[in-house]
Amino acid sequence: MLTLLLQEGAENLPSLAAEEEPVEKTLSLFDLLMSGGLPGQIIILVLFVLLFVAIYIYFERLFAIKAASGMDSNFMNQIKDNVANGKIEAAKVLCAQQNSPVSRLTAKGISRIGSPLEDINTAIENSGRLEVYRLEKNVSVLATIAGAAPMIGFLGTVIGMVLAFHQLATSSGQAEMGNLAEGIYTAMTTTVAGLIVGIIAYIGYNHLVVRTDKVVHQMEATAVDFLDMLNEPV
Questions:
Q1: 102, 218 in Cβ contact below 8 A?
Q2: How wide is the angle at C-alpha 190 spanned by C-alphas 188 and 193, nearest 5°?
Q3: 112 found inside a domain
Q4: Residue 204, Cα to own-chain centre: how many angstroms?
Q5: C-alpha angle 41/43/45, rounded to 5°?
Q6: Which residue ranges run through the membrane (predicted)?
């Protein structure tokens, strides 16, 4: 009889262990972001707005820079032929058809043909500064978001921590640790959100800077090529 009871007890052990196994509490990302109270929700909303602005500026500038970098590889050869043959108007029309920063710089130089070489160089440089300004339009906003988003997220965390410890202080140290811990990890979500937005904006900013530099180098090479063409002996 004793042996039978021991066997039955051993058989019931797995079922008892299964019954006593703790159930993991799951929480969706949306619930986690929205469970931080009004201050946390305001911070998250601000970060979402910054994320939207960053993504919009990134793609708008990316398409603009991509369009600006497109140029016919035979463009400068055609310009040289037209200028060498005295077809200045044909060269201007060719520049107008391209509609790119490189073509506009070349058109500015062509319009100054007959002036001293130094004046032509100055005109091209001034035009180049305007083209760079157009390419870098609103890109600095991405840099601002990359720096501000993590700080805004950290501000939300600090506010959450202050509220959590205020709850602990007003309850004379009798606050439940579960509620306190929930308030703390909820506050930390604003820092996570701020870091995500900041990283996205930072990567987007650096990618646009690299793409812009390529166009700027292309403009510089074209300007040097154009000035060398004017320096060639007739």
A1: yes
A2: 115
A3: yes
A4: 3
A5: 70
A6: 38-59, 139-164, 184-205
- Residues whose CB falls within 8 Å of the CB of residue 123, separated by 6 or more in sequence, listed in order: 108, 109, 111, 112
Residue 8 lies in a domain: no
* 89 inside domain: yes
Question: In sequence order, what are the residues at sequence separation of 6 or more whose Cβ sits closer than 8 angstroms to the Cβ of residue 171?
Answer: none
For 142, residues 6+ apart whose C-beta sits below 8 A from its C-beta are: 54, 57, 58, 201, 202, 204, 205, 208
Residue 205 domain boundaries: 30-231
Measured CA distances, 227 to 40, 55, 109, 117, 211 (Å): 59, 39, 8, 8, 25
pLDDT at 222: 80
Residue listed under structure tokens 């996205």: 200
Measured CA distances, 142 to 115, 118, 132 (Å): 41, 37, 17
| This prediction's pTM | 0.73
Per-residue DSSP letter, 1: -
The answer to whether 157 and 119 have CB atoms below 8 angstroms apart is no
- Structurally, the chain folds into a number of domains equal to 1
Q: Is residue 22 part of a domain?
A: no
Q: What is the pLDDT of residues 55-69, one digit of tens each?
A: 999 999 999 888 887
How many Cβ atoms sit within 10 Å of the Cβ of residue 199? 13
Which residue in 61, 58, 71 sits closest to 203, CA to CA? 58
Distinct helix (H) and strand (E) counts, the chain: 9, 0
Q: Give CA–CA dist 88/80, Å, rounded.
A: 10
pLDDT tens column, 101-122: 888 888 888 877 777 878 878 8
DSSP state of 60: H
168 residue type, one letter: L
